[in-house]
Amino acid sequence: MTYSGRVTVGGPADVHELKDLMITKIAVGPMDNNAYLLRCRATDEQLLIDAANDADTLLGTIGDDGLASVVTTHRHPDHWQALAAVVEATGARTYAGREDAEGIPVPTDVLVDDGDVIRVGQVELTARHLVGHTPGSIALIYDDPHGHPHVFTGDCLFPGGVGNTHKDPKAFASLMHDVETKIFDVLPDETWVYPGHGDDTTLGAERPHLPEWRARGW
β-strand 93-97 against 110-112: which pairing, if any? Predict the structure, then answer.
């Protein structure tokens, strides 16, 4: 089956099989959050991005092989409703952006700064700090040595625009600047984008619309 990135709450997960990494996308909770389970194919170590909701669903997806780490992309409650239960069940290490950790009610084991590397088995993910949706939102970039990059953007980048900045011009300007300089300016059009809600996209599909996003202010 070809990966589409289209998932619905209560429906099956979708699996993106790369040479070194398996990415399982599943939708959970009343706000249709996406959670992503990353599995290193060499070591079978697993990392979860956003234990958003439905702990039983997430633990069923994780399975019997355990979970090494959970990365929370930002402090908003819809992205950590299942975090306590998942950590209790698995003993996973917790990661979050330094500026957002205080807003997450589960202790953060590793505070993440811009440019930090987070590993899942032999796979490396580079964290980029994107300020505007929250003070400490992070995206994770996997630069696949066998293909194009993949970026997990939380609520900072979606098909059709950047994340909600609540009509705050300064926050919007900050988020646009960071998304442009740390994502669009350094990654190719083929880069696959995995957002915190909804369907996936690519940087190439979104790049032509950057000027109109700036002009509209959201």
Answer: parallel
Closest residue by Cα to residue 149 from 126, 130, 129: 126
Nearest of 151, 165, 166 to residue 201 by alpha carbon: 151
Residue 1 clears pLDDT 90, i.e. is over it: no
Please give the C-alpha separations between residue 73 and each of 14, 118, 141, in angstroms, as whole numbers: 20, 13, 12
Nearest-angstrom CA–CA distance, 208 and 218: 16
Q: What is the pLDDT of residue 8?
A: 98
Closest CA to 44 of 24, 68, 17, 60: 68
Enumerate residues 6+ apart whose C-beta is below 8 A from 140.
49, 71, 73, 118, 125, 126, 127, 128, 151, 152
Nearest to 49 by CA among 21, 18, 11, 30: 21
pLDDT band at residue 35 under the 50/70/90 scheme: very high
Beta-carbon contacts of residue 40 (< 8 Å; ≥ 6 apart):
20, 21, 46, 120, 121, 122, 123
Question: Quick one: what percent of the chain has pLDDT higher than 90?
Answer: 100
pTM over 0.70: yes
Q: Which residue has the tokens 């807003």?
A: 103
Q: Which amino acid is at 210?
A: L
Banded pLDDT at 204 (limits 50, 70, 90): very high
